[in-house]
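note to self — DONT lose this again. spent like an hour looking for the file last time. sequence + predicted structure for the chain T wanted, 179 res
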Amino acid sequence: MNRRKFLAVSGAGVLTAGGVAHVASPSSVRTTAARLSYEQLNDYVPQSLAVCTPSEAGYIGVLDMPPADAITEFKRRGFSEYYLSYLHAYERDDEVVYERGNLVRLSDDGDWQLHARLFPRDGRTEVRGHWEPSVRNQPRAHVAGDDVDHEKGEAMIRAEFDVIDEPFSGDLSMVDRCG
C-alpha cells in the first residue's frame, strides 16, 4: 500500500473511532466488543480479551440508580473508568449480563486501588468491589491476586454509597476461560 493510501485509510480509521467514542461512551464500546468476543469469538481471542465470570466474593449490593448514573456518581467521588482489565459477565434468567462500569480509585500513594464493577439490574445497579494492589505501582502483586481484600473494599464502598442489601441475582456458573 502506498504512503498516500495508508494515510487516507489511517485517517479514516481515526475519524471513525473518534466518532464512535463521541457518540458512545468507552464503557459501552468495551461492553459491545466483549459481547462480540464472548458470544462469537471466545475460542479464538487471546486470554487477555476473554470475558470472565466474577468470583463469588466481592458482591456488595444494589444502588438505586441505573448504571450510567452510578458511573457518574463514582467518577464524582474520584474514581476513573478502567478499560484494561478483564470484562466480567454472569448469567441471570438465561441471559448473559455484562458489566457496565469498571472503575478504580487509587490510594494517596498509588500503591493500592479500590476497584468497583457495576452491573445492570432492572433499572438499578449491582455493585461488586474489592481493595487490591494497584496495577500501576504493583503490577505483579495485582496479577497474583493474593492481597485482594473484598471485605475492606465493601466497607469502603458502603461508607460512600447508599447500598441496598439484596441477594445477588445472578448465576456464576457461566463457562469462561479465566479460571
